[in-house]
Amino acid sequence: MTKTLITKILLATLLLVGVFQYSANVPVFALIGSGSKEQACKGAELDNATGANCGEKASSDTQKILESVINIMSAVGAVIAVLVIIVNGIKLVLSSGDSARVNTARSGIIMAVVGLIVIALAQTLVKFIINRVG
Fold first, then answer.
1. Angle 110-115-117 (CA atoms, 0-180°, nearest 5)?
2. pLDDT at position 126 over 70
3. Hey, is 2 helix, strand or coil?
4. Which one-letter DSSP state was computed for residue 58?
5. Please, are residues 78 and 119 in contact by the beta-carbon 8 Å criterion?
6. Does 51 score more than 50 pLDDT?
7. Which of 15, 40, 50, 95 could make a disulfide contact with 29, Cβ separation 3.0–4.6 Å?
8. Any alpha helices (H) in the chain, and if so which ranges?
9. What is the pLDDT of residue 13?
10. In whole angstroms, how far apart are CA 28 and each of 39, 47, 81, 132?
11. Could you give the C-alpha distances from 44 to 8, 37, 47, in angstroms and in order?
């Protein structure tokens, strides 16, 4: 792959991560105006008496556990990817110009960076789905 293609892919990925990561859920009543929460709940056929609080998400234990597991897995994967980048960086420095060793180290670094991007996208996608479904 050329450097410009990798740069374009990286920039597009970062843009997508930013869009999904910071997409906010806007409650229905916030769009209508202040003081009309009951009307919005009625229009959306939601019952405020059930404790759902119409517009606010009830956080379940399963959702919290799922988020914790995903955060831990993402952190472990990110730490492993950073360690792979460091090890392959050392291999690259110590390759002494041997093209086979340079290519192996370089491809290891690229794969670790791709792994970090996949972890970030997966984290973002899962949070987006949990926010929409939960």
1. 95
2. yes
3. coil
4. P
5. yes
6. no
7. 40
8. 3-21, 28-32, 37-43, 61-93, 99-133
9. 67
10. 10, 14, 41, 14
11. 42, 10, 9
Tens digit of pLDDT for each residue in 52-77? 555 545 457 777 888 888 889 999 99
Average pLDDT for residues 85-105, to the nearest whole number?
92
Chain centroid to Cα 70, Å, comes to: 10
Tokens coding 70? 């995903």
Instruction: Output DSSP code: residue 1.
Output: -
pLDDT at res. 25: 47
The DSSP line for 61-76 is: HHHHHHHHHHHHHHHH
Rounded CA gap, 111 and 99, in Å?
A: 18
Q: What is the DSSP letter of 98?
A: -
Q: Give dist(CA 76, CA 23) in Å, integer.
A: 25
Pairwise CA distance, residues 94 & 100, whole Å: 12
Between CA 54 and CA 46 the distance in angstroms is 6
What is the predicted pLDDT for the residue at 100? 92
Residue 128 has pLDDT above 80, yes or no: yes
The dihedrals phi and psi of 52, each to the nearest 5 degrees, come to: -75, -15
